[in-house]
Amino acid sequence: MAEMLWVLLGVAVGGAAGFGLGRRRGPTTLAPSRAEDPHLHSISRLAGSLAPVWSAQITSSRTQMETAVGTLTERFAEIVENLDTVLESSTGVLDEGQGGTFDRSRERLGGVVGTLDDALSSKRATVAELRTLLAFNDELRQMSGEVTAIAAQTNLLALNASIEAARIGRAGAAFGVVADEVRQLADRSAGTSERMASKVGHVESTIRTLLSHAEETAEREDEAVAGANAEVQAVLDDLQGVVAGFRDSSATLSRAATGIRGDISASLVNLQFQDRVCQVLEHLQASIDRLPAVVEEAGERARTDAPPIDPDAVLGEMEASYTMAEEVDAHRSGSGAQVRDSEITFF
């Protein structure tokens, strides 16, 4: 488009110069007629009218493109920021180094199962103590039986002594009293032994009841703890499966987010064309803005018989204003130029 304008500029300047030269070769007086030449005036007026229109169109297009690309760049930047936040959050939740929810839950459940195992061990120790008490009670029963037998034998001996004392007569009266006292002691020992046997039997019954209840309770608790262990392990296995699924999904999401982030970053780099196009349009607009002055100068030179303007000098001035190598390449070759990779600035 710039080349086309400069061609038009050349045509305008050349036409003005040629028209002035043709006028100069005519038979009439040149200076007054050139000063009011309608052709030069119309060309100058056309250039002065077209340049603002072209400049306004370029400005409008550039503004719209800058606004659209700027908004698109901001949206892409927000998307990249959100992706970074999601990736950071996902990695933090499932990060093994910081202790995941699964590991903490397994540790706490393990503590609960350990407490149940300790309670069951204590109950088993109680059952063992009860069995020991039951053995001691059997020994007491045996000892009570022995006391009863001793009392019976003592009673028998006392009875025999009383008989012998009675048979001796008055001389054995005192011995008979002793024998009677011994027999009474034997009766009391037998009574005490019977009460001891009764108490031992009651204690044995109580211990057996407690032992039976403790064994039943221990058995139920053993089964409950075993069931709790199985349930806890099943829950942990399910949680581990869920966490593994989350980790797989997180890894997939991370890879997808990383890919999207890379694509958006590449798109942001490609959006730099807007800045390059704006620079080209600014230089083109400056050239268009200068066109009326150049045409006016060319007409003025034609009217005053001054030397024509130098198109090469005008083009050289235009080339000197370029800031990108591709502008220079397009200017010199007259065709579109490729963007050089070394000129791309990454965000």
TrEMBL record:
<dbReference type="GO" id="GO:0006935">
    <property type="term" value="P:chemotaxis"/>
</dbReference>
<protein>
    <submittedName>
        <fullName>Methyl-accepting chemotaxis protein</fullName>
    </submittedName>
</protein>
<dbReference type="Pfam" id="PF00015">
    <property type="entry name" value="MCPsignal"/>
</dbReference>
<dbReference type="GO" id="GO:0016020">
    <property type="term" value="C:membrane"/>
</dbReference>
<dbReference type="InterPro" id="IPR004090">
    <property type="entry name" value="Chemotax_Me-accpt_rcpt"/>
</dbReference>
<dbReference type="InterPro" id="IPR004089">
    <property type="entry name" value="MCPsignal_dom"/>
</dbReference>
<feature type="domain" description="Methyl-accepting transducer">
    <location>
        <begin position="64"/>
        <end position="235"/>
    </location>
</feature>
<keyword id="KW-0807">Transducer</keyword>
<dbReference type="GO" id="GO:0007165">
    <property type="term" value="P:signal transduction"/>
</dbReference>
<comment type="similarity">
    <text>Belongs to the methyl-accepting chemotaxis (MCP) protein family.</text>
</comment>
<dbReference type="GO" id="GO:0004888">
    <property type="term" value="F:transmembrane signaling receptor activity"/>
</dbReference>
